[in-house]
Amino acid sequence: MAKTINGPTGELKKLQEALDGIAKLIPTGSTETVGGLVYSQPQLLAKVEGFIKSFTDLLDLRAQYATQFHKALAVRVQAAADGREFLKDLRAALIARLGRGAPELAQFGFVPEKPRTPLTSAQKVQKLAKAKATRDRLGTKGKRQRAEALKALNEPRLSVGSDGTISIVPELPPSK
Known about the structure:
Layout: H1 11-25, E1 31-34, E2 37-40, H2 41-98, H3 121-138, H4 143-151, E3 157-160, E4 166-169
Antiparallel strand pairs: 1-2, 3-4
């Protein structure tokens, strides 16, 4: 798993802790041997600060470019919305000029509308039969049919006997 450069266990944090330790615990006039080389305390500080600078420079660049990226993204989003609106208006103007089904619309990137051919008598009958079969299969009802079904559900009539029992009196079908 890759370490993050600015996370809680990242190398930047470790370098900053090392810098603090060098500044606090290594006396100014003393030297330390690190990796076979001898460093004075100011040289150690400069070395670690150089490493830290490479991290902070990268973080600064990332922040700078993130800001620029978000600004550019906002501009692009607005341009896309404006472009969609312009294309709608352009299409409407071209349709007014050329007609809905003009093949020249394709040269502008718009799909021309295909002319609708009227249905024959047989196709109309078939269409109506399919629609009726679907409504029957799904139990779809119109506004009036639903209203009639609700009217048929009258409040039940109750009868209370002399002994206190309650019974429902059956309804007669509505007369027309």
